[in-house]
Write a structure and sequence with these properties.
With 70 residues, the chain is α+β, with helices and mostly antiparallel strands. It has a single domain, classed as Glutaredoxin (3-Layer(aba) Sandwich). The chain has three helices and three strands; from the N terminus they run βαβαβα. It has helices at residues 12-22, 41-46, 66-69; strands at 2-6, 26-30, 54-56. Strand 1 (2-6), helix 1 and strand 2 (26-30) form a beta-alpha-beta unit. The longest helix has 11 residues, at 12-22. The radius of gyration is 11 Å and the shape is globular.
């Protein structure tokens, strides 16, 4: 199952809509940008640029910018 790390209202919303159209199942993990959850070490280990969205693929690996995702 694909997972996506996102924050509502950011450009993550477009990727969320894209995934809803293409995949029947995916898991959403919400990051609260005002609480700076994207700056925590756990998230930095996944995405050193500290940006959202970050889809995590079943086969491993992540994409970390909107253009390469879409």
């Amino acid at each position: 199952m694909i997972q996506i790390l996102m924050s509502p209202g950011s450009c993550s919303t477009g990727v969320n809509i894209l995934l809803e159209e293409l995949y029947s199942l995916f898991e959403v993990h919400i990051l609260k940008l005002p609480k700076e959850e994207h700056l925590r070490d756990k998230f930095k280990a996944t995405n050193p640029t500290c940006t959202v969205p970050v889809p995590i693929l079943e086969v491993g690996g992540e994409f970390t910018d909107f253009m390469s995702i879409a």
